[in-house]
Amino acid sequence: MGEERERATIVVFSGELDRALAAFNIATTAASMGMEVTMFFTFWGLNVVARERAGGSGRSPLQRMLGLMNRGGARRLRLSRLDMLGGGRAAMKSLMKKYRMPSLEEMISMARELGVRFIACTTSMALMGLEEGDFIPEVEEFAGAATYVEKAAGSKINLFI
Question: Which residue stretches of 33-133 are H helix?
Fold first, then answer.
């Protein structure tokens, strides 16, 4: 019998660049330390792992309106503070490049290479009119809160970002 790995779970609720970077920094660090890591993307956090969309999608007018406001894509995320119509975001990305920090897109790829499991919340997807095809290929599972709670129950680290 093999030794069971310690687990970490992270709820990614925010769709803001700085918070997503923090979530992926912790996830990749924990995974590189040998932990089994699960990231559960819900509500605005779905934008972190959603493909870039041109406009609104969804069945109802309200879902289409949400789609227009949340067009998805890690490249489009704003800062939680001092975004200044994209100026703060551009400055942050410039500093990250200068100090050779990986971009969010690179961190997403690194996380998958390290075995981090990505789960998109099906309840939030239904609310926002999103479908499985609206997400990047790194998202391998679509499930509800019960799946997250099951993973979190056995986790040594459990974060809400």
Answer: 46-49, 61-69, 87-98, 104-113, 122-128
